[in-house]
Design a protein that fits this description.
With about 100 residues, the chain is mainly alpha-helical. The chain has three helices and no strands. Helix 1 packs antiparallel against helix 2. The longest helix is centred in the first third of the chain and has 29 residues.
């Protein structure tokens, strides 16, 4: 019985497809940031873009074998989380620090 996913060629194709899909989803989320009817829509779209950038960093680390892109992804995830919480607090309460 033949293996349906033979070796590293399949992994390379899968990683390339993941990078392309993440880039496409980032473009779609960018449209929502520009057109978004409300501020919460824009905040969610910006959070989605941040998550996609982290995904691109991690997938690129896997594709290229360069481990420091994992550190870049981790730092971007932390910054994205803090900025999302800060913007959400500003939108709901009108002030960041009381």
């Amino acid at each position: 019985m033949a293996d349906p996913l033979p070796g590293p060629v399949s992994l390379e194709l899968l990683l390339t497809a993941a990078l392309a899909l993440s880039a496409l989803l980032t473009l779609v989320a960018s449209y929502r940031v520009i057109v978004g009817p409300t501020t919460p829509d824009r905040v969610v779209a910006l959070d989605t873009i941040g998550t996609n950038v982290v995904a691109v960093a991690v997938v690129y680390a896997m594709a290229s074998g360069r481990g420091y892109f994992l550190d870049v992804g981790l730092v971007l995830a932390i910054i994205g989380f803090i900025s999302t919480v800060t913007v959400a607090r500003y939108v709901t309460e009108g002030d960041i620090v009381e």
